[in-house]
Task: structure prediction
Amino acid sequence: MTRTLNRYLLREQALPILICMAVVSFILVTGQLFQLKRILFASSCSMKDVAEIIVLAMPKLFLYATPMAALLGVMLAFMRLNGDNELIALRSVGIGFLHLLPPVLAVLLFVTAAAFINAIFVIPVANAAFEMKLKSLGRSSIPSLLKEGSFISTIPNLVFLFRSVDHAELTIKGVFIQDQRHPNERVTIDAESAQVLIPPDSKSITFKITNGVITRTGQDMKDAQAVSFKNYDFTLSMDDVVGAAEKGIRKKREMNLTQLYEQVQHLTGMNQAINFKLELHQRLAFPSACLLLGLLGPPLGSFFRQRARMTGVTMGVTIFLLYYVILSAGKGLGESDIISPFFAVWTPNLLSFALAIFLWRKLHTETPFGIPVLAAKTARLFRSGTKAADVGAAPK
Result:
């Protein structure tokens, strides 16, 4: 009977987890494409390019989707069992809640193993290919950004204005560039013409500008400097075009665990080592969250029936958001060197594990929770006190 029950519970959990994984992945992919809309719309990318971006982004998105899918999938499975009174039937024949742990662990360990393989082996390779693809699209988007007679502000902290553009020869007449990439100064370039150079294998794009004036003004607008020139090279890195984040972040995410560990050892005692330690711990903590958050699914699913499915799903999403908020706060404290990188990243996992042990123990022993019992006793005392007061106040 135990083997039959385990197979039945395995089947009940597998489908909800797959459905939750598909839904969460679709939401995350949509959000990723929305963040990249500037590059996708500016470049002449095909459906093949969009498909490649989605495929290369999926490993990183799976890292965030898998823990949430494990929690919601297992919770929905047990919510269905509770709604059909199957959990009550199992208890009536002497099968306690703790006896349901092996099939739950089997499913969660499989999901956790897949998440570890993804985090350790797939994500570094996919991130490197993803960055190369973005830079390729960013390079191809430059000709379409060269519009005539309109301000172009699609590249962060840069504004372009061109009087006339020859897209075939990539030459420009009438150049105006405002550069605000440096917070302490504003640079304005006004020139007669420019030639755009886009080397196929280069990580930068060069505007060879001729016959113009460069004006630099301070942040307080009190000091200004103007310099005329005949030839000037204005270089734009692909990180500026793609809108990459802070330097080093993408490179760090492209490293495997061995490279991250070697980098940590190389930077021991330096502030730069903190970011690599956080990345190393996060690469291990997120896959582990599939198991630790997933263990919360059976107890939470046992609290709700199918009619309260949306309430249960809301509860699961809230727990995951709380997990992510604690993780974000911990990473902020870790980056400031207030707490160690281990506790900065692993604290949400440790709290999830402690909560899972508490809930499993309560449901297996079928003991009531302290807060509801205390509230019920308080209500009974209040009602008895009210009745006594009414009797005392009654006329004799």
Notes: The first strand starts at residue 158 and ends at 166. Confidence is low (pLDDT under 50) at residues 244-250, 371-375. The two ends are 68 Å apart (CA to CA). Residues 2-138+249-370 form one domain.
